[in-house]
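Lecture notes, part 5. Sequence design as translation. It can be helpful to think of inverse folding as translation between two languages: the language of shapes and the language of residues. The source text, in structure tokens, appears below.
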């Protein structure tokens, strides 16, 4: 680990994975606006767009956030890697950067402490005059310090108003964070009310605040979950106020039931049993009465059933809960599994297994059995040493659901029983083959047969099956990626075949996919000793695509230069990792056993 920083290259590779780490190497030169704080690092990275990256050094390790599509899914992306690598390469200057970042903060504190009361008051007035958000927050704190409940409610609801942040009636992702910061002030105000002896007022205002945010939650792009966190903090503030104030239990139960069964409950994770202390026996009885009536009126209602499940579980009414589930059994056996899990939690394992076995017997073949139900039974059979019964279940599942997951489960069970021989495997593969349909052109889905062969590592059989028409685009590419070291000519034919359709398309995602395919093709050419052919191919491609400036920039970023820069190309690191994309079809056969794609390049099939 780096002595100055809390991470090193190994940590970046672990967080990103080998593929994103290798891709991040190509973006180091695209890092700009780097700022290094005490525990945070921010920068911009130029990719298919300009992306903002934030790295944070925490006690339990490094975290990264990027606003690229992959980063927004919570992944430590290639842009985070590039920023991390840039900082590591400047490790010697990090202490100076951090000292410089801390210095302005200390200077500001010293300066503020030296100002008089009138000077500070004038400064605050100056800023609130031009900052609506700051003015609202300070107005709320002033109202909370007084005794005007209506003013507090007005200020809290004002902080939850989305209109100042909405464009065309919708709060976009770019504005959601700022709105979340403002909305969080409402939570602080509610907690202040509770802490200063005004918990009864906090209960009332919190209810209004929860409903106000819930009404607008669907109009906010909350991809990062910032607003969802605020909504849950509002709910927590309400719960804290209820536990302190102990409001009327029947009225509180009615509000909770109305909220949980209404259309505005999705924003929060309120669980009625959490209010058991505040509700007491009278409140819980009222909640049960209301929930039971709602379930009678709407026996198929998900919200009604879920609320009753919560109450029964909190009351410890296992048999009543089982009866509730048993009244509406799913054809997949999923409900049987729920009952089995409840019984096992209640310390009744024999009854749990009976219900799970019943689920396997009663499951409709068109809908089940649910894979989790099969796993539940097999896990308990395994503990009991019933390997033959496990194998029987896994065979039945594969017969009903011919998928890679079912094949893997059968393989595991057969190996545990000591009978995963050629006969068992052949029988399983024939089931998958019978379910597959050879295709002349590639369709949207492939065959489980190809997936199973790839999963077994039987690449020769996989090539044979793919050539016979059992592969879709994903499987063709996976096969090429897995075998290009041993069969570079065959893999090259697949990669080149994929490039053609992409050349007629536009868009950042298309350009990224095209670049990755070209990188893979280059690896194959190098293995074949035909780099000159690739250089000529790139010259033609770049000439034909030269108007696509974004594409040209991405190609340059990854070392796919114009032939005039071929010396730089040859110095490029031989080790490359690419992201699989969807191939278009297998190679075309030509006389002599060769393969030919649209480029005219040939190789052995």
């Amino acid at each position: 680990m780096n002595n100055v920083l809390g991470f090193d290259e190994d940590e970046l590779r672990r967080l990103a994975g080998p593929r994103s780490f290798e891709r991040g190497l190509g973006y180091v030169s695209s890092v700009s606006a780097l700022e290094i704080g005490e525990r945070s690092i921010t920068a911009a990275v130029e990719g298919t767009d300009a992306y903002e990256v934030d790295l944070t050094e925490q006690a339990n390790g490094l975290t990264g956030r990027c606003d690229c599509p992959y980063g927004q899914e919570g992944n430590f992306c290639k842009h985070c890697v590039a920023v991390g690598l840039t900082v590591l390469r400047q490790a010697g200057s990090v202490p100076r950067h951090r000292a410089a970042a801390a210095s302005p903060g200390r200077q500001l504190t010293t300066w503020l402490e030296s100002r008089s009361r009138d000077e500070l008051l004038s400064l605050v007035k100056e800023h609130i005059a031009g900052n609506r958000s700051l003015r609202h927050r300070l107005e709320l704190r002033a109202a909370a310090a007084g005794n005007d409940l209506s003013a507090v409610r007005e200020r809290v609801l004002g902080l939850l108003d989305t209109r100042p942040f909405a464009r065309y009636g919708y709060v976009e992702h770019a504005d959601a964070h700022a709105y979340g910061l403002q909305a969080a002030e409402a939570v602080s105000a509610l907690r202040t009310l509770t802490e200063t002896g005004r918990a009864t007022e906090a209960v009332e205002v919190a209810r209004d605040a929860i409903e106000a945010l819930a009404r607008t939650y669907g109009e906010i792009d909350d991809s990062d979950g910032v607003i969802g966190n605020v909504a849950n903090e509002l709910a927590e503030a309400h719960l804290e106020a209820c536990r302190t104030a102990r409001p009327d239990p029947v009225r509180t139960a009615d509000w909770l039931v109305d909220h949980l069964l209404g259309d505005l409950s999705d924003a929060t994770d309120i669980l009625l049993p959490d209010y058991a202390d505040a509700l007491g026996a009278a409140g819980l009885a009222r909640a049960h009465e209301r929930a039971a009536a709602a379930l009678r009126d709407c026996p198929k209602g998900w919200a009604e059933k879920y609320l009753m499940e919560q109450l029964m579980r909190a009351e410890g009414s296992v048999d009543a809960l089982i009866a509730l589930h048993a009244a509406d059994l799913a054809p997949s056996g999923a409900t049987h599994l729920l009952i089995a899990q409840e019984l096992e939690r209640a310390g009744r394992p024999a009854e749990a297994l009976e219900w799970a076995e019943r689920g396997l017997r009663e499951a409709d073949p068109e809908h089940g059995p649910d894979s989790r139900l099969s796993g539940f039974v097999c896990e308990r059979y395994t503990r009991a040493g019933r390997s033959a019964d496990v194998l029987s279940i896994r065979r039945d599942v594969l017969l009903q659901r011919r998928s890679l997951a079912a094949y893997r489960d059968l393989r595991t069970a057969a190996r545990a029983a000591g009978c995963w021989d050629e006969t068992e495997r052949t029988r399983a593969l024939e089931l998958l083959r019978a379910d597959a349909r050879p295709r002349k052109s590639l369709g949207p889905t492939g065959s489980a047969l190809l997936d199973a062969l790839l999963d077994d590592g039987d690449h020769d059989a996989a090539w044979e099956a793919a050539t016979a028409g059992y592969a879709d685009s994903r499987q063709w590419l996976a096969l090429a990626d897995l075998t290009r070291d041993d069969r570079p000519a065959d893999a090259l034919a697949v990669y080149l075949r994929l490039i053609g359709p992409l050349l007629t398309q536009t868009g950042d995602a298309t350009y990224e996919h095209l670049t990755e395919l070209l990188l893979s093709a280059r690896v194959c050419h190098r293995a074949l000793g035909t780099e000159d052919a690739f250089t000529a191919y790139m010259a033609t491609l770049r000439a034909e695509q030269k108007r696509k400036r974004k594409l040209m920039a991405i190609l340059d970023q990854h070392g796919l230069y114009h032939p005039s820069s071929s010396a730089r190309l040859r110095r490029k690191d031989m080790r490359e990792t690419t992201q699989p994309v969807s191939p278009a079809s297998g190679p075309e056969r030509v006389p002599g056993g060769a393969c030919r794609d649209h480029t005219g390049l040939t190789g052995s099939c």
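The translated text above is only one of many valid answers, since several sequences can fold into similar shapes. The CA atoms of residues 129 and 135 lie 7 Å apart.
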